From TrEMBL:
Keyword Transmembrane found: yes
Keyword Metal-binding tagged: no
GO terms of molecular function: cyclic-guanylate-specific phosphodiesterase activity
GO biological process: cellular response to nitric oxide
Name of this chain's protein: Diguanylate cyclase (GGDEF)-like protein
UniProt keyword terms in alphabetical order: Membrane, Transmembrane, Transmembrane helix
Residue ranges annotated for the EAL domain, each copy included: 1-250
Gene Ontology cellular component list: membrane
Length: 250
């Protein structure tokens, strides 16, 4: 069982590492971005996935420090990539509400020299649940810096279409549950079609998550989905594998 002190010790011992998963443009096959995904290199337990420690980090507030580590690592790593390759960073709702957020992003960009337009921040619908003035102000401040904002896990949670009206998102990430059932469920196909159509009409990029096979990719291409991400291309891998993951469009 993980405890707050384990997380604190791990931060101090530098046991966290950012992995990257490529995101490809569906039409050209080119890698256009990588999503930063946090891992914990535990000395005894090995690699621990975020579902096992993010909730505790959120409860204890340590997510703010952890999130700053991810932002700094992601911006520093991305600064060494080709400049037409972006980086996407997940923001916890707790981190989003922290008064440090704008300063953390500003600092990560300044320290790395990364162009703000190459940074995408992924937020989930839960951030928008209260739809408070403060949330919208933060989103607009980030946007004014040049940072782009993605709506992650779209279609899960409360998924109100009014979220798309409350803020001009740059990207919608279609949750992988819809992609996994694409070939077997008519309704998943219909939902993907509706969301890609919505993206087209609103001028918002759509990214399908969890793409695992060529049949799914082909269906997404046919629906005009902009980008795809998933094990078909690569699992999340260490920063040292990015050059390899950038190789040739498939
Ligand atoms: O890496 P994996 O595919 O196991 O990620 C599982 C979940 O953990 C996803 O919902 C993802 O958004 C979340 N996650 C991964 N890395 C981070 C991170 O750096 N910050 C936050 N807040 N969530 C993350
Ligand atoms: O919630 P979020 O979209 O931020 O997190 C992405 C999560 O999805 C990570 O846990 C990542 O490891 C996982 N993932 C990425 N690609 C695939 C895939 O093709 N199949 C499955 N099952 N999971 C994936
Ligand atoms: Mn994400
Ligand atoms: Na997601």
């Amino acid at each position: 069982r993980l405890l707050e002190m384990d997380l604190r010790a791990a931060l101090q011992r530098d046991e966290f590492e950012v992995f990257y998963q490529p995101i490809r443009d569906v039409a050209s096959g080119r890698v256009v971005a990588f999503e930063a995904l946090l891992r914990w290199n535990h000395p005894q337990r090995g690699l621990i996935a975020p579902i096992h420690f993010i909730p505790l980090a959120e409860e204890t507030g340590l997510i703010v420090q952890l999130g700053e580590f991810v932002l700094r690592s992601a911006c520093t790593d991305a600064a060494s990539w080709p400049d037409d390759v972006d980086v996407a960073v997940n923001l916890s709702p707790v981190q989003f509400k922290s008064p440090n957020l704008i300063a953390s992003v500003t600092e990560a960009l300044a320290a790395s020299g990364l162009d703000a337009r190459r940074l995408e921040l992924e937020i989930t619908e839960s951030v928008l649940l209260q739809n408070s003035e403060a949330t919208l102000t933060t989103l607009h401040e980030l946007r004014a810096m040049g940072v782009r904002i993605s709506l992650d896990d779209f279609g899960t949670g409360y998924s109100s279409l009014s979220y798309l009206r409350s803020f001009p998102f740059d990207k919608i990430k279609i949750d992988r549950s819809f992609v996994s059932e694409l070939a077997t469920r008519e309704d998943s196909m219909a939902i993907i079609r509706a969301v890609t159509g919505l993206g087209r009409s609103l001028g918002i990029v759509t990214t399908a998550e969890g793409v695992e096979n060529d049949a799914q990719l082909e269906l997404l291409r046919r629906e005009g989905c902009t980008q795809a991400q998933g094990y078909l291309f690569s699992k999340p891998r260490p920063a040292s594998d990015v050059a390899m993951m950038l190789e040739g469009p498939r």
